[in-house]
Amino acid sequence: MSRTKSLAIIAVFTALTYVFTWLVNIRLPLPGSGGLIHLGNVPLFIAALLFGKKTGAIAGGVGMGLFDLTSGWTAWAPFTFVIVALMGYVVGLFAEKHPIRNDAANAVAAILAALGIKVGGYYLAEVILTGNLIAPIGSIPGNVLQVTFAAIIVLAIYPELKKAARHLFGQLVVA
To answer: Which of 70, 85, 116, 168 has the smallest number of Cβ neighbours within 10 A?
Structure first.
């Protein structure tokens, strides 16, 4: 894939991640920060699964980091950038090393790895921001729900999106 196409794909998925995070988000009434349910993980996971670790990391980290900067979650932005970039990188790396070829079990494994990064990363971030080891536990259910909801959507549409992307772009980063 040409550098121009790659840059355009990264830009589109970064914008989609931002918009999907901004457009539908629900703050949960849970202890600690409570968590936020949004759809930003959907384009993040699709970008990583279709186009690999670089696209997943940049689209996720920048897209959701920008959301935090522009939506009143400014203190969270540096953490989000790192945590979500790592999620995208790991899902993309897994997809590159273990081509998914419509195998739901492999996609689930990649997304479970991202879930672990999200839960652990945001727990540590909240501990740093609040100085409290107990309160951040209240945010874990929201993070699990957020990734689970995204996983259901992604697993339902991924096989067809992969076919369409191959048709449009030819050979993908991920086989």
So the answer is: 168
Contact 59, 10 (CB under 8 A): yes
CB atoms closer than 10 angstroms to residue 174: 23
pLDDT tens digits, 19-58 = 999 998 777 776 655 566 899 999 999 999 999 999 999 9
